[in-house]
């Protein structure tokens, strides 16, 4: 199967949708953003054995490669519209490509994102790089740098599940619903868009709540106080690990793709998922963690492991 055949069979879905002037097949894609909107460009690369275990199903790899990008677009409050795919793999395995493209295109279809181009090549291990273009009303994107002292810090959904799930994929003994938080993350695309004009700053949680909130705070030049007891932890995570472990996962586990944002006003009710206030933005820098008002001590501050 040559490159042309791979593209035709698995990736070219014909009929460009609105805003796509030239899709797959020419040297480059041409897209027309809506009047009055700016483009938001994001890219994320997944390397086999680095960002996902070699045993992860090809459909999940495809789904995840898109979802992690949709999550970045969501954190900007933007509407994802187009994507390109750079795919490197050792051999062109038909079954693998079939499942991979199904997962990839399913994640894209959920948010009406069109695959408009890409590159297909060989490499010693699987490397999937997806780029997404989204649009947002000019000047209205939510950035990381707008948090101000007094703002409340919110987190969507639950955190720690994906890291616990990855642990389960690698070592077993963890409920399926946690594993699927890793393999099939839900990007909070619509909710992110609803935060435009409300959130003062936002970031999606890919490296872990503590690390990512830290980036938002640093970009805004402020600090935070957060209450560890208030972290949104799912029932599945509660039932699978002791409290200290749950909190480790919730605070330091990556790959949840929830949104963490700050706001001076009441955010919209997301309805279908949890929304939790976990703390407050303060002057200064860094994150002060407390449990029931008491400062938290970590075993090793580098890893935030609870005693
Ligand atoms: P070029 O050599 O000009 O870069 P290619 O032969 O690599 O073009 O690709 C032909 C067309 O197929 C281009 O429009 C390109 O964007 C698209 N394409 C290549 N690989 C993929 C892929 N994995 N998914 C979607 N489109 C792809
Ligand atoms: Mg060319």
Description of the structure:
It is a single chain. The protein is α+β, with helices and mostly antiparallel strands and 307 residues long. The chain is built from 9 helices and 15 strands. The protein has helices at 3-11, 58-75, 94-110, 161-171, 176-183, 189-194, 209-220, 235-240, 243-252; strands at residues 20-22, 30-31, 37-47, 79-89, 114-122, 127-137, 152-156, 199-204, 223-227, 259-263, 275-282, 286-291, 294-295, 298-300, 305-306. Strands 8-10-7-11-9-12-13 form a 7-stranded mixed β-sheet. A 4-stranded mixed β-sheet has the order 3-6-4-5. A two-stranded antiparallel sheet has the order 1-2. Helix 2 runs parallel beside helix 3. The mean pLDDT is 94. The structure holds adenosine-5'-diphosphate (ADP) and magnesium ion. Adenosine-5'-diphosphate binds at residues 3, 7, 11, 24-27, 85, 87, 115, 117-120.
């Amino acid at each position: 199967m040559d490159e042309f055949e791979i593209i035709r069979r698995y990736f070219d879905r014909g009929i460009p949708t609105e805003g796509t002037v030239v899709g797959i097949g020419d040297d480059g894609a041409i897209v027309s953003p809506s009047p009055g909107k700016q483009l938001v460009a994001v890219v994320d690369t997944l390397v086999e054995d680095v960002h996902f275990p070699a045993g992860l199903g090809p459909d999940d790899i495809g789904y995840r490669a898109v979802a992690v990008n949709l999550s970045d677009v969501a954190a900007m409050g933007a509407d994802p519209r187009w994507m390109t795919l750079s795919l490197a793999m050792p051999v062109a395995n038909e079954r693998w490509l079939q499942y991979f493209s199904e997962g990839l295109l399913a994640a894209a279809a959920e948010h009406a994102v069109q695959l408009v181009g890409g590159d297909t090549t060989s490499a010693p291990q699987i490397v999937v790089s997806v780029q997404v273009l989204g649009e947002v009303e000019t000047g209205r994107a939510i950035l990381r740098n707008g948090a101000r002292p007094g703002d409340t810090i919110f987190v969507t959904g639950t955190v720690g599940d994906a890291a616990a799930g990855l642990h389960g994929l690698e070592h077993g003994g963890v409920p399926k619903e946690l594993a699927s938080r890793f393999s099939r993350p839900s990007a909070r695309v619509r909710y992110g868009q609803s935060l435009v004009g409300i959130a003062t700053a936002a970031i999606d949680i890919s490296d872990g709540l503590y690390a990512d909130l830290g980036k938002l705070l640093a970009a805004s030049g402020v600090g935070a106080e957060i209450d560890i007891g208030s972290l949104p932890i799912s029932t599945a995570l509660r039932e699978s690990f002791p409290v200290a472990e749950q909190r480790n996962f919730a605070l330091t586990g990556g790959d949840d793709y929830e949104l963490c944002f700050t706001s001076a006003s009441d955010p919209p009710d997301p309805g279908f998922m949890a929304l939790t206030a976990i703390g407050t933005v303060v002057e200064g820098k860094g994150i002060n963690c407390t449990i029931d008002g008491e400062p938290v001590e970590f075993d090793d501050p580098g890893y935030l492991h609870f005693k």
